[in-house]
Amino acid sequence: MRTRAKQSPGFTLMELMITVAVLAVLAALAVPSLSDFFDRNRVRAAADDVVSLISNARAEAVRNDLDVNIAMRGSGTAWCVGANAAVAPTGGAPAAGATECNCATAGVCLVSGGR
What we know:
The protein is α+β, with helices and mostly antiparallel strands. It contains one helix and two strands. 45% of the residues lie in helices and 12% in strands. It has a two-stranded antiparallel sheet with strand order 1-2. The longest helix has 52 residues.
């Protein structure tokens, strides 16, 4: 008479390999959509920063009865947004000596790269 080998609880090697393969496929599908998610959030945060800058510039102009010039420059990958207060209302011309938006100076008016 044959005796059966006692089965121990646990997973077989084949079950573990199939599980790892399924998880790898799911991870490969999730990574591109995750990077799109971060890109959308980065753009949304930059847009919120621009709206905040415009709102603050308007409040500064009303509070001090000054023209505030907002400069927006850029290309598809790098862009700057900045605001300068004029000495007095000058019909949209920037004040003498007002600094322009400069992407070369980190943190001055770069929206997408952090402040």
